[in-house]
Design a protein that fits this description.
Layout: E1 2-3, H1 13-21, E2 27-29, H2 42-53, E3 61-65, E4 78-82, H3 86-98, H4 104-122, H5 124-137, H6 141-149
Parallel strand pairs: 1-2, 2-3
Antiparallel strand pairs: 3-4
Amino acid sequence: MISYVFGVTYPIDDIIKLCKKHNIYVIEDLAETFHSLKFNGLFASLVFVCNCVLGHPDADISLFSFGSIKYNTAFGGCLNVVRNDDVLYRKMKYIQDQYPMQPTSTYLKKCVKMGFPTFLLNNRYANYSIRMFGRLTDIDVREYGISLVR
């Protein structure tokens, strides 16, 4: 498993060659590397995601996470790309299909709950004001914010 920490990627061609030589799966953990879509518009965004963002083309599995503490969050969920292994894909799909479907209302509540704090933390002026308030009141706003988000 290759994990790119803090969104920094690096060439993995030599690692992939070595793993393929010894019949070892290559799994990429790209949880922190998804920064943004480079194009405007839904169709262009989908084309970009499908062609450019989905990890190394020779990795067996590429994993993306969109949890609430990620830079580009969807307040939960993930994207798993399985390449050239229909048996593994079917096993993973079977397991996923056993999970209960989350109701839209539950997801909407999560978006409302998490949306405002996320906006505040990503807004320069609001973030500065919150940090100043924390200093004045001796509240560790970073720890408090992390506990709220998690």
